[in-house]
């Protein structure tokens, strides 16, 4: 699953969740934006934040955003398994409500 923060219409950053069926990976893709702009966009969308170059994605908000696009009947269970696996691997944030995510350039950047 990918959370993309890209420059949208009128150069306003847009946040969207993509590849929701691929729960074997989770990362944050930033387009041609500063970290500050990416952070503001994530916070405004309610999906997370950027801190010192690390992405933090809110689990409940991510689930709500991605679930609308999911098509597999077992998606909810697979999402829960992804979150558990990430937490077991040390990717849970200190707040317990979010996961750390790799930050990569967006394909559309």
Automatic annotation (TrEMBL):
Highest taxon in the source lineage: Bacteria
* Name this polypeptide is given: Uncharacterized protein
Q: Which organism is it from?
A: Modestobacter roseus
